[in-house]
Each structure stands twice: as C-alpha cells, then as structure tokens.
Design a protein that fits this description.
Number of strands: 6
Low-confidence stretches: none
Helix content: 25-40%
CATH class of the largest domain: Alpha Beta
Shape: globular
Strand content: 15-25%
Mean pLDDT: 97
CATH architecture of the largest domain: 3-Layer(aba) Sandwich
CATH superfamily of the largest domain: Phosphoglycerate mutase-like
Strand order of the largest sheet: 3-2-4-1-5-6
CATH topology of the largest domain: Rossmann fold
Largest sheet: 6 strands, mixed
Radius of gyration: 16 Å
Structural class: alpha/beta
C-alpha cells in the first residue's frame, strides 16, 4: 500500500504586500513565513517517522523550494522529481490582479464561483482546460500507486482541487498555504484520508 501526502506550498506574500492571484506565470518565491510553513511540514513528518521515499514537485519556485525544505528536514534520501503536470493553473487575465480588480471586471460572483463551487470563469483565458487538468491529476496518481511509501507531492491550490476529485474526497476542495492532505492506495483504489490539515493536525495513525 502507498501512503500519499499532498501539500500546498507556503506563503508567497509577506506583511504589507499587495495580494494578487498567483498562477503559472507568476513564479514567485516563498517568503520567510512560507519557508517556515514548509519547515513545519518537514518537522511533523520527521516526528511521525513519515520520511518521504519519493518527492514530486511542480516546477515553480514556490513548490520546488518547499520540497527542498521538507527533504532537508526529514533527511529523505529521495530525489526531487519535477513534474510539469503539477504547474499551477495559468489564471489568464486574473493573474497578477487583486480580488477587487477581478470583481470590478468580472462581477461579484466570479471569485466565489471558483472558490466555493469550483466553477471556472468562461472569459478569463484560464489554461489548461478542465479535461487536461483532470487527466493530469489521474496520470500523476497512477504513477504514485506503486511509489515508495510515504510519497509526497507538492503543488498549488488550483491543481490540488483536481486531486481532491480524482481521489474521491467530498466537500470543500480548497487547500490553505502550508497545509497537507493524505490518501492511501490499497492496491486497487485510492482511499481518502484527510484534506487541508495543518501539519500539527496530521493524525499519527495515517
């Protein structure tokens, strides 16, 4: 059986920064608090003796740096595999804009439709399309079925939403920065375990 941990990178904005939508074209690094979030995840995994046997990261700076921090703290012997399928969604004309700027152009329901109901806007130029993102999530999962256990995937919130559906989780698909999710493959299918937990709240009996 494979235990799969799915994590979102940490913060890319610090106090006083202008908060904008960060997609594939906004390749921001982790700020100090974001590195601390990655360190908390690594420390918790080390505490639980969940040393990653495989680490897969998206190619953006924020996910790669989070993976490096977790690898170092857990003293994992695994290399860090970079998978372009884990690149955050390109949010098109929303990328680099604040919530207020998006609401002014696209209407008050545009953001909540995505955040709460997973409904993409039709006219904002987001890429890839839903079918590609679903296919990517399924393909990455298929490649993790026989990975060393535990395996760790680090990516972004938009991409994790597609893993939420592919694994069979229900409810809110959002993942906060620095939070972690888990599923287990029993040899036949993925079993949902936990979603959107702070590292400190990860159960000891995963």
């Amino acid at each position: 059986m494979t235990l799969l941990l799915l994590a979102r990178h940490g913060n890319t904005f610090g106090p006083g920064d202008r908060i904008v939508w960060v997609g594939a074209r906004q390749d921001l690094p982790l700020v100090k608090s974001g590195e601390a979030q990655a360190a908390r995840l690594g420390e918790k995994l080390r505490e639980l003796s969940l040393i990653p046997q495989r680490i897969v990261s998206g190619p953006l700076k924020r996910t790669r740096r989070a993976a490096e921090i977790v690898k170092a703290i857990t003293a994992s012997d695994a290399g860090i595999d970079i998978d372009k399928r884990l690149t955050e969604i390109d949010y098109g004309s929303w990328g680099g804009k604040t919530d207020g700027e998006i609401v002014a152009r696209f209407g008050p329901e545009a953001i909540s439709n995505w955040r709460e109901d997973h409904q993409r806007p039709d006219n904002a130029g987001w890429t890839p399309d839903d079918a590609t993102l679903r296919s990517n999530a399924m393909a990455v999962l298929a490649g993790m079925e026989a990975a060393g256990s535990p395996a760790l995937v680090i990516t972004s919130n938009g991409i994790l939403r597609y893993f939420h559906a592919a694994i069979g989780f229900t409810g809110d698909a959002k993942v906060k920065t620095g939070h972690v999710c888990a599923a287990r493959h029993d040899g036949e299918r993925w079993q949902p375990l936990v979603w959107n937990r702070e590292p400190e709240d990860v159960p000891e009996d995963l």
